[in-house]
């Protein structure tokens, strides 16, 4: 058998880079987490792993000793002296006890029928909008009795979902059926949060219709060509399932997308910061600082508003708003992201910032530059068809506000086409 690939695990299969493995500390063989029923996030808690074979003689695996509740690595020995890190139990307790200016001072409260494209084009879409009732939003959802088990029924238990281990602020993957099992178990050994389950390609898609306004404004909806070489980005239907005390630290949504969130049951608390020049500069330096997880970004800015989103409420967060989210009770929420014409300059600034921060592609808007070109092509056609119009305000904002090589190319092309 010379040359045969080495095999591992109880399943005796060759190495597969896409599957998470754990090494046995006794026999030194490697095991697929799914074959030995160890979740990826659990592996981080194991000090000495004993595989099913070695367990017979050597007893069960040994877990790391928890020395502190305020550090991501809770086995660190010099615990007392070191600062609290975001997402840990101590952090969440302190966050709950703090007071913040209320977002009521800032939010627009509206009915679904008032939230029209005309209204936003006239008034701008620069402040978060809270819609306390579903009426006239065009948003369709399953009933509030819809459970995490129902999500499993519609999406399929084998679906691999990204799961955030909140205390460690670490991302891992697990099967949806295992996350649902975890969610349903009252004795939860840790806090896990699912925020990136996009379900447009599942049976659950038919149960949710996005708000009319997001669909009307959406670049993907309006400008993505059916025959595009790139696959159409799917970012409009997310199902969020988080247990109490889940926390997502301050961020700007990918590509400077705007986003709607509807809480089906439970509650989420948003901490909202306005994307002023000063706040964006502070955010960029905080994001690239090594002590990011030990510094509460809300303390660095003039005002961080607290916004409680209760069951049945829908919150719209505009382009560039910096936000953190505490899941104050077990919660299921739906949400969707969209790019639009109302704040192109800010969208481009956010995209450029992601590039400077070297954000991995996985966390960026898929084919952001391609969609900008599709929008630009459409704009150009509009301009050519209306030669009397010197420049629409949309076009002006688009090409004046982007200072990257891509935009310089775009400006050159527009100039070329317009002679
Ligand atoms: O609910 C959460 O934990 C995070 C929500 C959010 O802001 C996001 O997914 O971008
Ligand atoms: Fe977000
Ligand atoms: Zn295996
Ligand atoms: Zn072993």
UniProtKB/TrEMBL annotation:
<keyword id="KW-0804">Transcription</keyword>
<dbReference type="InterPro" id="IPR003347">
    <property type="entry name" value="JmjC_dom"/>
</dbReference>
<dbReference type="InterPro" id="IPR019787">
    <property type="entry name" value="Znf_PHD-finger"/>
</dbReference>
<comment type="similarity">
    <text>Belongs to the JHDM1 histone demethylase family. JHDM1D subfamily.</text>
</comment>
<keyword id="KW-0524">Neurogenesis</keyword>
<dbReference type="InterPro" id="IPR041070">
    <property type="entry name" value="JHD"/>
</dbReference>
<keyword id="KW-0560">Oxidoreductase</keyword>
<dbReference type="GO" id="GO:0007399">
    <property type="term" value="P:nervous system development"/>
</dbReference>
<dbReference type="GO" id="GO:0008270">
    <property type="term" value="F:zinc ion binding"/>
</dbReference>
<keyword id="KW-0408">Iron</keyword>
<dbReference type="InterPro" id="IPR050690">
    <property type="entry name" value="JHDM1_Histone_Demethylase"/>
</dbReference>
<feature type="domain" description="PHD-type">
    <location>
        <begin position="6"/>
        <end position="57"/>
    </location>
</feature>
<dbReference type="GO" id="GO:0032454">
    <property type="term" value="F:histone H3K9 demethylase activity"/>
</dbReference>
<dbReference type="Pfam" id="PF17811">
    <property type="entry name" value="JHD"/>
</dbReference>
<keyword id="KW-0156">Chromatin regulator</keyword>
<keyword id="KW-0863">Zinc-finger</keyword>
<dbReference type="InterPro" id="IPR011011">
    <property type="entry name" value="Znf_FYVE_PHD"/>
</dbReference>
<dbReference type="InterPro" id="IPR001965">
    <property type="entry name" value="Znf_PHD"/>
</dbReference>
<feature type="domain" description="JmjC">
    <location>
        <begin position="199"/>
        <end position="355"/>
    </location>
</feature>
<protein>
    <submittedName>
        <fullName>MGC82519 protein</fullName>
    </submittedName>
</protein>
<keyword id="KW-0479">Metal-binding</keyword>
<keyword id="KW-0805">Transcription regulation</keyword>
<dbReference type="Pfam" id="PF02373">
    <property type="entry name" value="JmjC"/>
</dbReference>
<keyword id="KW-0539">Nucleus</keyword>
<dbReference type="GO" id="GO:0071558">
    <property type="term" value="F:histone H3K27me2/H3K27me3 demethylase activity"/>
</dbReference>
<dbReference type="GO" id="GO:0005634">
    <property type="term" value="C:nucleus"/>
</dbReference>
<keyword id="KW-0223">Dioxygenase</keyword>
<dbReference type="Pfam" id="PF00628">
    <property type="entry name" value="PHD"/>
</dbReference>
<dbReference type="InterPro" id="IPR019786">
    <property type="entry name" value="Zinc_finger_PHD-type_CS"/>
</dbReference>
<keyword id="KW-0862">Zinc</keyword>
């Amino acid at each position: 058998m010379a040359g045969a690939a080495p095999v591992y695990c109880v399943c005796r299969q060759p190495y597969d880079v896409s599957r998470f493995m754990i090494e046995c500390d006794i026999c030194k063989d490697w095991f697929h987490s799914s074959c030995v029923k160890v979740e990826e996030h659990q592996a981080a808690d194991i000090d000495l792993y004993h595989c099913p074979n070695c367990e017979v003689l050597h007893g069960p695996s040994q877990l790391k000793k928890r020395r502190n509740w305020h550090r991501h690595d809770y086995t660190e020995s010099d615990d007392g002296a070191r600062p609290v890190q975001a997402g840990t139990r101590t952090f969440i307790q302190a966050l709950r006890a703090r007071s913040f200016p209320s977002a009521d001072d800032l939010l627009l409260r509206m009915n679904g029928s008032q939230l029209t494209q005309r209204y936003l084009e006239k008034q701008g879409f620069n402040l978060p909008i809270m819609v306390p009732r579903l009426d006239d939003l065009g948003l369709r959802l399953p009933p509030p009795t819809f459970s995490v088990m129902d999500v499993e029924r519609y999406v399929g238990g084998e679906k691999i979902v990204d799961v955030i281990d909140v205390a460690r602020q670490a991302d891992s993957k697990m099967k949806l059926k295992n996350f649902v099992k975890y969610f349903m178990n009252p004795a939860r050994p840790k806090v896990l949060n699912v925020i990136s389950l996009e379900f447009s390609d599942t049976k659950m898609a038919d149960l949710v219709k996005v708000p009319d306004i997001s669909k009307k404004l959406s670049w993907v909806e309006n400008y993505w060509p059916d025959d595009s070489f790139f696959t159409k980005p799917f970012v409009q239907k997310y199902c969020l399932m988080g247990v109490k005390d889940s926390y997502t630290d301050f961020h700007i949504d990918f590509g400077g997308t705007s986003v709607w969130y509807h809480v089906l049951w439970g509650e989420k608390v948003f901490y909202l910061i306005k994307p002023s020049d000063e706040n964006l500069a502070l955010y960029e330096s905080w994001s690239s600082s090594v002590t990011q997880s030990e510094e509460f970004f809300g303390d660095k800015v003039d005002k961080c508003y607290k916004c409680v989103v209760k069951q049945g409420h829908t919150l719209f967060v505009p382009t560039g708003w910096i936000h953190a989210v505490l899941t104050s009770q077990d919660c299921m929420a739906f949400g969707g992201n969209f790019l639009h014409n109302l704040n192109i300059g800010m969208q481009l600034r956010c995209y450029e910032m992601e590039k400077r921060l070297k954000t991995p592609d996985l966390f960026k808007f898929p084919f952001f530059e391609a969609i900008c070109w599709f929008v630009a092509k459409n704009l150009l056609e509009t301009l050519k068809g209306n030669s009397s119009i010197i420049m629409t305000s949309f076009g002006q904002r688009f090409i004046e506000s982007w200072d990257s090589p891509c935009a310089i190319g775009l400006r050159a092309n527009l100039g070329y086409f317009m002679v």
